[in-house]
Amino acid sequence: MTILSKLYELPSSDFTLLCFDLLKEEYKFSNCYITDGANDQGVDIYAEKNGNKYAIQVKHKFGYTDDKFINEFNKYKSLVTQYDSFIFITSGKISKSIIESLPYKNVIIIEQYKLLDLIEKHKNVTSKYFKKAEENLKRIFKVLSTSSISMVLSIIIGLSSILITTINKEQDRTLNSQIQNVEHALNGIKGLEVYLNEIKKDMIETNTKNELIEQEYIKMQTVKKMITNDKKTLNSIITYTPWYSKVITFLSGLVTGIATSFISSILYDNYKKKRKLKE
User: Fold this and answer.
1) According to the model, what pLDDT value does residue 210 have?
2) Which SS3 state, helix, strand or coil, does residue 41 take?
3) Packing angle between helix 112-121 and helix 123-237, nearest 10 degrees?
4) Which of 49, 75, 164, 254 has the most CB atoms less than 10 A away?
């Protein structure tokens, strides 16, 4: 852990105290104190040495650009003329060229590098501040480590929960999909069963009707055979066949033919109607 990192861990109030002890040790001021912040008029530390008065401005910063430093310095330009010496001390970086460009002989600029040299030179008065900073850093690292571990665990637990939920959802979706597929298959089987039953019923009905038609046809053939036998019997009884018997025979044959054709026609038309209704 570097001195600079410890330095930036100090709050502004502790940094002011550090600068107070450093400057007092370095310049051996006879009278030195920290002013009231509300009424300091730009003077954070007032000091005296050999009758000379010092106005000291303390700035705890990371660094300054050239323009930013000039703007900052101009705020305290009046102190340069009011006091014998003006010290501007800061934890931030300031370019060497901009410091050398200042047209004042009674101005002392102590920027980051000079400040670190003073801290190294006067460890006896600065070590107490950095011990406190070290403790703060350790506490921060501990909190960060604990927080990091907790955060990592929370992320792992969160991701695990999301993963488990996703897997469960996928499994539920897969199970639901499988159940739906089985239901579709069962419905298909049921539909096929109904269709097969209908076909079976049609076949039974068709077979029954065919049997009826066949029975009717057999009856028709039986009637025809009976008529034919009656005709033969009639012819055998009548040995004498006058002219009118021929006419009777002709008429009986004609009637028999017409009756047979009529019955056959009715049966056939009935068969065609039933077949057409089944198509």
Assistant:
1) 47
2) coil
3) 120
4) 49
Q: Would you tell me how many other CB atoms lie within 10 Å of the CB of residue 53?
A: 14
Sheet with 107-110, edge to edge strand ranges: 31-34, 45-49, 52-59, 85-90, 107-110
Question: Contact, 130 vs 3, CB < 8 A?
Answer: yes
Six-digit token string for 241? 């066949």
What token pair was written down for 234?
Answer: 């009639």
**pLDDT tens digits along 30-42:** 999 999 766 678 8
Q: pLDDT tens across 198-216, in order?
A: 766 765 665 555 455 456 6
Report DSSP letters for 60-110, one per residue: --SB--HHHHHHHHHTTHHHHHHSSEEEEEESSB--HHHHHT---SSEEEE
Tokens, residue 8: 């930036």
Letter for the amino acid at 61?
K
CB-CB contact of 44 with 57 (8 Å): yes
Task: Give CA–CA dist 213/86, Å, rounded.
Answer: 135
pTM over 0.70? The answer is: no
Say which CATH architecture domain 3-121 belongs to. 3-Layer(aba) Sandwich (3.40)
- Could you tell me the maximum CA-CA distance found in the chain, to the nearest angstrom? 188
Q: Which residues contact 132 (CB under 8 A, 6 or more apart)?
A: 10, 14
Who contacts 2 (Cβ-Cβ below 8 Å, separation ≥6)? none
How far is it, in rounded angstroms, from Cα 207 to Cα 212? 9
Crossing angle between the packed helical segments 123-237 and 243-278, to the nearest 10 degrees: 180
User: Which residue type is seen at 161?
Assistant: S
* Lookup: tokens for 228: 């034919």
Angle at 41 (CA atoms; ends 87, 44), nearest 5 degrees: 45
